[in-house]
Amino acid sequence: MSIACNEARRAGDNIAQLTDVASLDQPESDERLTIFTDKTGMVKAARLLLSSVTKVLVLADRIVIKQIITSRNKVLATMEQLEKVSSFQEFVQIFSQFGNEMVEFAHLTGDRQNDLKDEKKKARMAAARAVLEKCTMMLLTASKTCLRHPDCESARINKEGVFRRMRLALEQVIEIVTDARPSAEGEIPPVSIYTGVQEFKMKVESLRDSLHVLSKEDLTTMLEVILEHTEDFTDSAYTSHEHRGRILELSRQARLELEHLVSVWMHTQTLKAKEAPEDMELAIIKTCQCMNELKRELHGAAALLAAELLKCHADHLVLKALKVAGVEGNLEAVAGYSCKLSEQKEQLVETCRLLRHISGTEPLEITCIHAEETFQVIGPQIISAAQTLALHPSSKIAKENLDVFCEAWESQLNDMSILLREINDVFEGKRGEKRTYLSLPRPGKHSANLKTVKAVKLDTEEQTKIAKSGLELRLLTSDMDSEAEKWEDQENEAVRNAQTMSSMAYSIYLFTRGEGLLKTTQDLFHQAEVLAEEGLRLSSTLQIFSNQLEDDDKAALLLETEKLPPICQQLQTMARSPVQGKNTTFMKVDTAVQKTKGIMMVLLQILPIYCKLLKKYKKVKSCLGSPQNWNENHLQQMAVDEDSLSGKKVNSVNSFGVKSLEQHMANLTFLESK
User: What start and end residues bound the annotated signal peptide (predicted)?
Assistant: First the structure.
C-alpha cells in the first residue's frame, strides 16, 4: 500500500510540474519541460497515476475484506467459548466480549454493504446482517436458559439452533465480500416466474428484428420452464379454485399462442422475408399479451394469499396461547398449539415461495427467500422454547426466552407486510424511491416538534448509521441487565433507577429499528429528556449515600458518579432544544442515541463499585451491632414517596433475563398520558 501511494504521489508531482502555469511565463530558452514540450512525459505520468491509484483502490479493498474476515474469525472463536461455558459468571464475561466483537463486525459489514454496487449482493448482505442482529439477542436468552436448566433437552435444541443459524449467516457474509460461490446449503433457487416471463417476452419480441436469432426449441423450452414453475401455484392447497382454474387456462392458452407463433414464424422463414409480416406481428403481440395476463393472475393469487394470511395472523393468538400454556406448565396444550403454529409456518413458508415468483426484482426475490428461511427456522425454535417453559413454568428466563423468539416471529410478519407492499409497488410501476433493505431500521414518522408533525425519511446511509448505534445501545442494555441480576436486593433504589434507565434506553434502541412505542422524533426526544432526569435522580441518590462512607470509599464512588450529571445535563439540554429541517433533525436523533450510550456506559462503571461499597457498608454496620441502615432505608422511603407523588411506576426486571417487550412498554408511561 505504501509503495502504491508513493507511486501515485510521484505521478501526481510529475503532472503538477508539467502543468505548472507559472512555468509558461518563462522564456523558451530556459528549456523547461512543460505539457507542450513533453507530451510523452505527460502521457507516461497520467498512465502511472491511473495505475497507482488503481493499485491503491484494489489494496484498500483487500484490506477491508481481510478486516471483515478477521472480525468474523474472532466472532466464531468467541461463539465456541460461549457454547462450552458452564457457569453464568463466565458466560456474562464472554458475552460482553462477544457483544463488542459483534458491534465491530456490524460496523465493517454495514460500510461494506453501502459500498456494494450489485443490488443482489447488497440484498443478500442485508439479509445476513438482519439474521445476525436478531440472533445476537436470541443467543443471549437461549444460552442463559440452557445454563439455568442444563438437563433440559428442548433448551439445548433451542440454543443449538441459534448458533447454527448465526454460523450460516457469518459464512454468507464472507461469501459475499470474497465473491465466492455459495455453499450448497445457501444456493439461490431457480429463476422466478417473473424473471422467466420477462426473458421469454424479450426473446419473442427479438423476432421482429431477426427471424434467425434463436430456434423454436429455445422458445418452447423457456415456456415449459415457466409453466412448470406455475405448478407451485396450482399444486398449492392455499390457492383458491378460481385462481387455480384461471392459471391453468392461461397456461393452456400460452402453449397455443406459442404454437401459432412458431407456425407463422416457420412459414415466414420459407418466404425469406426480411422483416416480420403483419400476421407474425399479431402473433407476437398475442403471445406477449397472454404472458402478461398469466403474470398478472399469478401476482393476484400470491398477493391475495399473503394479504389474507397477514390479516389472519395479525392478532398472534397462537403465540399468546403458547405463552399461557407454557406458564401454566400444560404440556398437552403446548403440543396442541405447537401443531397450529407448525401449520401457520407451512402456510407462511409457501406464501413466501409464491411471492418470490412474482417479486419483480432480484433484491425483493432475495428478501422473499430470507423471509421463507426465517419462518422455517423460528417456528421450531418457538416450539422448543415453549416446551422448555412448560417443563419449568416458574422459570423467568425460560419465559423471557420464549418472548424473544415470539418477538422475532412478529417482527418477521411485519417485514413480510412491508415486502408485500414493495412487491405490489414494483408490479404497479411505482419505483420513485430508493429501496430500503429490511435489515436496516424502518423509521416511522419523524418530526421536529409536536405542533407540526412532518414525516422525515432517512436515506440508506443515515439508517445504517442509526442502526449501528442502536445495536451498540442494545448490547449495553443487556450488559446492564446482567449487572442488575447480580444484586440480591432487587428493590434497592439505585438498582431500580438503573433498571428504569435501561428500560428507557431499550425503547430508544427500538426506535432505531422503527419499532416500539416511540413513533416520532419528538417521542424520542421526550424519552431522552425523561432518561436524563432519571440519571440526575440516581446521581443525587449515590452522592447522599457516599456521605455515609469512609473517605477512600467515598472518593472511589464519587470519581465515577461525578461523570453522570454532566452527560445527563447535556442530553437534557439537547432534547429540549428546537430543530428544523431534515439534516438537523437527524443530527439531533444521532446525538440523542450517542448520549444515551454514554450514560449507559457510565452506569456500567458505577453499579459494580456501588454494589461492592454497599455490601462493605452493611457488613461494617452488622459487625458493630447496629440496626438496619436507617439512612439508606430513609433514602429509599423518600424516593418511593417521591415516585408515588409523581405517579411514577417503576417496574422490576425479571431475574436472569433481558426485559420483555411488555415491560419496556410499561415503563414508557409518558406516552399513555399524551
Answer: none
The overall pTM is greater than 0.85: no
What confidence tens digit (pLDDT) does each residue in 560-574 have?
888 999 999 899 888
Report d(CA 92, CA 94) in Å as an integer. 6
Task: Report the C-alpha gap between 398 and 145 in whole angstroms.
Answer: 6
Sign for the CA dihedral angle at 296, 297, 298, 303 comes to positive
Q: How far apart are CA 564 and CA 598, in angstroms?
A: 9
Cell numbers for 661, please give them: 417487550
Low-confidence ranges of the chain (pLDDT < 70): 21-38, 181-190, 272-276, 430-465, 467-469, 485-491, 515-516, 621-674
Angle at 603 between CA 601 and CA 607, to 5 degrees: 130
* CA atoms of 519 and 503, how far apart (whole Å): 17
Angle between helix axes 582-623 and 493-512 (nearest 10 degrees) is 160
Q: How far is CA 128 from the centre of its chain?
A: 9
Q: Which positions ≥6 away from 504 have C-beta within 8 Å?
A: 527, 530, 531, 534, 667, 668
CA 458 to each of CA 121, 318, 462, 516, 586: distance values in angstroms, whole numbers, following the listed order: 22, 35, 6, 18, 8
Residue 259 CA to residue 214 CA, distance in Å, equals 15
Dist. CA 213–CA 206, nearest whole Å: 7
How confident is the model at residue 54, as a pLDDT?
86
φ/ψ bin of 179: left (φ > 0), alpha (ψ from -120 to 50), beta (otherwise): left
The C-alpha cell that represents 225 in the structure block: 420452464
CA dist 502 → 192, 321, 467, 524 (Å): 46, 29, 18, 15
pLDDT of residue 494: 79
Alpha-carbon distance 459 to 25, whole Å? Answer: 50
Q: How many CA atoms lie within 13 A of 46 on its CB side?
A: 9
Single out the residue of 336, 327, 427 nearest to residue 385, CA to CA: 327
Nearest to 348, CA basis, from 392, 315, 283, 302: 302
In this predicted structure, what is the pLDDT of residue 139? 92
**Residue 194 contacts residue 357 (beta carbons within 8 Å):** yes
Going by C-beta distance under 8 Å and a sequence separation of 6 or more, which residues neighbour residue 453? 445, 447, 520, 522
What is the amino acid identity at position 403?
D
Contacts of 203 (CB under 8 A, 6+ apart): 213, 214, 218, 219, 222
Q: Are the CB atoms for 173 and 235 separated by under 8 Å?
A: no
Q: CB 607: neighbour CB atoms within 10 A? A: 21
To which residue does cell 446492564 refer? Answer: 480
Domains, the chain, ordered by start:
2-115 (no CATH), 145-158+313-439 (1.20.120.230), 193-306 (1.20.120.330), 446-674 (1.20.120.230)
Distance in Å from the first CA to the final CA of the chain: 58
The DSSP letter of residue 277 is -
User: Packing angle between helix 317-328 and helix 362-391, nearest 10 degrees?
Assistant: 20
